[in-house]
Design goal:
The complex is a heterodimer of chains A (about 375) and B (about 450). Chain A is an alpha+beta fold. Chain A is built from 15 helices and eight strands. Chain B has helices at about 1-15, 20, 25-55, 75-85, 95-110, 130-135, 140-150, 155-185, 210-220, 230-245, 255-260, 270-295, 310-315, 320-335, 345-365, 365-395, 400-430, 430-449, and strands at about 185-190, 190. Chain B starts with a helix and ends with a helix. The chains are: A alpha+beta (about 375), B mainly alpha (about 450).
């Protein structure tokens, strides 16, 4: 395994020689490329099909989310966070709301916490489904995409019924929820759990024991636990390397300490293990949702929070386990209605740093597989 | 005038040969036109079927807008492609860029000169038929390399390199499988046919028609001959032919997620459609080779088990029944069409299409017709089964990586093919081997002991 500290930067100054007299080929993968999941630009230096090194160029989707926060009130900024990791908008909202709540010193009522857990776990499944579909598509299996999107649709329907939005939900408010769960919410969720459980076996049937899938993913994009920790990688990517680190257990937030679930881990830190870890997370999410829906308490869904949110002077860092890894918010308050500074620690950006380590010496096709397995969302990488 | 009419009718008089083999230019030309037409229709149908079948495998509907159930979609696509702006990259090598798609199409279509749709239903019958097919079909790699090179762009170049490496390496395994099938034309357990076995005076053949006739005379499709050797050879060929035509799971040259579109990234409009046409006709071509070599070509299934005049008649009715079945599907779908004025034209169109299919089906019940199209029908059906497999593969498998593809080709298929070739030869000569090698050896050993 390549030591990330000894990686030499790419030599991009030397002009590209013609095809005839150079063995190396510099290829620009992206920003418009079907497999870079948005507008990621990867500069590849190739020797034939072998990757000598690569460099990521990001920022094509930069919208200055953190700067916008400085000019909005705490409440007004809440919908903006949905636009970062737009496939896991609920998780983003949860992280932001909890951080501000921590700053304010309030806590959401139990019923709100439970509904938050249900929606967040549903969103984790939706995010993983999107990951599975696109990852399989990158490796050439086109069918799983349609299966996962069929089932993701059911999750989005629940979101739509709950808050009217499917993707950028803005489901949570600082201090709890704006909306009480609609009539039949519990039945819908239970029905979904019953519906999706066999579907996950269906995805696995297509891929887990498929020879080509195993060959394409086993031993590809290996990252050791040491390297993963050194690079700050979190989420399923870290867990697949054998590190049992899940913020839901390590630093329980929301109501997660009340639920019984396991942290799936892998051993080899390769693409196949990351796939297995995420597939296992599907099932753990279902367990959490089942428990949460069974034990859903009655009561208010909004804590006592002033109409105008004016947190005391101070700073706070709070992080949650988003589908892609540790999603942290660091908020500095100067006592006014607007944050002095908001800094987001996006899991995708940090995980993307591991791309170079994972791809050196691999083939071109592996780069695509590794980008897929890192499960990046460019909205979150660039913010 | 009279000599010309005589020339034309003379072929019809004793129709025991293909027009090419009989040296009749007029009928050869007619056959070429027919094959070209049939192939174009097949590619159009395949285009529509692939979309629909793949869509239904993937819980979606596929084309539904242009025509009833999207039946006119391929035509709409063809019009779109023809009307599209013809873009040539500024840095491209103009002449090579222009000629590359033609070479690919030429190679894909020329192959059909020797494809035997029936004992006399082929353009010509060459005594080196199978060699001709393999040789011409591998010419298409030249066009692909030219396309990738002339585009003067990174992704097409990589696609072209992948494609050429892939086609060249899989051709070896494919060739070995073909050789073992050719061996079977002349070998049975007692040695060479010509050397005093079953009644043919022949000692094996490379002619496509001859290969099918050999299967007919030996009473066995080569896929079942020397079980399981024929089957293994067939499987090697079936894998290699997917790689040869750059289809999933071996579609690396046009791996969409890696190389955008591979060697034809820079092509658009009509030029691109030529590549498309070539790809599909190449699929049909290699499937025809497989059908001819292992699945008994135009022969109907179960000729030994279900023989006699009654069974012949039953099998003769199959073409008509197939078309009637398709017509019935059309009528069923017509009945299920939404009862809305907006769908009126579509409903009428679907019913009309069903009626046309039904009429064709009825026409196929006329003895004079079904006797003549029988061979073509069974051949087309077998090829269609392969086409379905191609679609099925595409819906199921992820894509191989380049090095894995090479590994499968050189380390698995090639040694298997070689071993198979030797085993087939031994199997064919087993009585000779016993009499001339094993028994003398055994006697010698016994004497020493």
């Amino acid at each position: 395994m390549t030591d990330p500290n000894t990686l030499s930067p790419l030599d991009l100054e030397t002009p590209d020689k013609t095809f005839l007299d150079a063995n190396e080929l510099v290829i620009n993968m992206g920003p418009q490329h079907p497999a870079t999941h948005g507008v990621l630009r990867v500069i590849l230096r190739l020797d034939g099909e072998k990757v000598m090194g690569l460099e990521c160029v990001i920022g094509y989707l930069h919208r200055g989310v953190e700067k916008i926060a400085e000019n909005r009130t705490y409440t007004m900024f809440n919908p903006y966070v949905d636009r970062m990791d737009y496939v896991a908008a609920v998780s983003n909202g949860l992280g932001y709301c909890e951080t501000v709540e921590k700053l304010l010193g309030v806590e959401a009522p139990p019923r709100a916490q439970y509904i938050r857990v249900i929606l967040t776990e549903l969103n984790r499944m939706a995010s993983h489904q999107l990951w599975l579909g696109t990852h399989a598509l990158d490796i050439g299996a086109i069918t799983p995409l349609f299966y996962t999107f069929r089932d993701r649709e059911e999750i989005l329907k629940i979101f739509e019924k709950y808050c009217g939005a499917r993707l950028t939900t803005h489901a949570f408010r600082i201090g709890g929820l704006q909306y009480e769960a609609y009539d039949g919410f519990e039945q819908d969720v239970k029905k979904f759990v019953a519906f999706v459980t066999p579907k996950i076996d269906e995805y696995e049937e297509l891929l887990t024991t498929n020879r080509i899938w195993v060959e394409r993913t086993k031993g590809v994009g290996v990252i050791s636990a040491k390297d993963a920790i050194a690079l700050g990688v979190t989420g399923p990517v870290l867990r697949a390397s054998g590190v049992k680190w899940d913020l839901r257990k390590a630093q329980p937030y929301a109501n997660y300490k009340n639920f019984d679930f396991e942290i799936p881990t892998g051993q080899n830190g390769d693409t196949y293990d990351r796939y297995l870890v995420r597939m296992a997370e599907f099932r753990q999410s279902l367990r959490i949702i089942q428990q949460a829906v069974d034990g859903l308490p009655e009561g208010p869904v909004m804590a006592k929070v002033p109409k105008v949110i004016k947190p005391p002077v101070g700073e706070v860092y709070h992080s949650i386990e988003a589908p892609k890894g540790e999603l942290g918010y660091f908020i500095v308050s100067d006592g006014s209605t607007q944050p002095y500074r908001v800094r987001v620690r996006p899991p995708s950006l940090v995980n993307l740093q591991a791309l170079d380590v994972m791809c050196r010496g691999a083939m071109v096709a592996d780069v695509v597989a590794v980008i897929g397995t890192l499960d990046i969302v460019l909205g979150e990488v660039d913010r | 005038m009279q000599p010309i009419i005589d020339y034309i009718t003379s072929y019809l008089g004793n129709k025991t040969q293909t027009p090419g083999a009989a040296g009749n230019l007029f009928w050869a030309f007619v056959y070429i036109l027919l094959v070209f037409l049939g192939l174009s229709v097949a590619v159009i149908a395949m285009n529509w079927l692939e979309r629909k079948i793949l869509a239904h495998m993937q819980v979606r509907l596929g084309p539904m807008r242009v025509g009833p159930h999207g039946l006119l979609q391929p035509i709409a696509d063809a019009i779109k492609l023809l009307l599209k702006e013809d873009i040539m990259p500024a840095e491209a090598d103009g002449f090579v860029f222009w000629i590359a798609p033609f070479i690919v199409v030429l190679a894909a279509f020329t192959v059909f000169v020797v494809v035997p749709f029936g004992p006399t239903h082929a353009i010509t019958d060459m005594n080196i038929g199978i060699l001709f097919m393999l040789g011409v079909s591998s010419l298409s790699v030249l066009g692909i390399v030219m396309a990738g090179w002339a585009s003067n762009s990174h992704y097409p170049l990589i696609g072209a390199l992948r494609s050429s490496a892939q086609m060249v390496s899989y051709e070896v395994a494919m060739g070995l499988a073909v050789v073992s099938a050719i061996l079977m034309t002349s070998l049975h357990g007692l040695g060479l046919y010509g050397a005093g076995g079953v009644g043919t005076g022949d000692t094996g053949t490379l002619s496509m028609i001859g290969i099918v006739q050999a299967q007919q005379e030996q009473g066995v499709w080569f896929v079942f001959k020397f079980f399981p050797l024929g089957l293994i050879a067939f499987f090697i060929f079936a894998i290699a032919m997917v790689a040869e035509t750059n289809r999933a799971p071996f579609d690396l040259p046009e791996a969409e997620s890696e190389l955008t579109a591979g060697f034809h990234t820079e092509y658009s409009g009509f030029r691109w459609s030529l590549f498309f046409l070539a790809e599909y006709s190449a699929m049909i071509a290699v499937s025809s080779i497989a059908v001819t070599l292992w699945l008994g070509g135009w022969l109907r299934p179960f000729p030994n088990l279900l023989h006699g005049a009654t069974w012949d008649l039953v099998f003769n009715l199959f073409p008509g029944i197939t078309f009637l079945f398709l017509a019935a599907i059309c009528f069923y779908s017509t009945a299920r069409m939404p009862k809305h004025p907006y769908f009126k034209i579509q409903t009428i169109g679907l019913a009309g299409f069903g009626a046309v299919l039904g009429l064709i089906g009825l026409a196929l019940f006329v003895p004079a017709v079904f006797i003549r199209v029988q061979d073509i029908y069974w051949f087309a059906m077998k090829v269609a089964a392969f086409m379905y497999l191609y679609i099925w593969y595409r819906g199921t498998f992820p894509r191989y990586r380049f090095d894995q593809l090479m590994k499968v080709g050189w380390k698995i298929l090639l040694p298997m093919g070689l071993g198979l070739l030797i085993l087939t030869a031994c199997m064919g000569m087993r009585s000779e081997l016993r009499h001339q090698v094993v028994e003398p050896l055994w006697h010698r050993v016994a004497n020493i002991l």
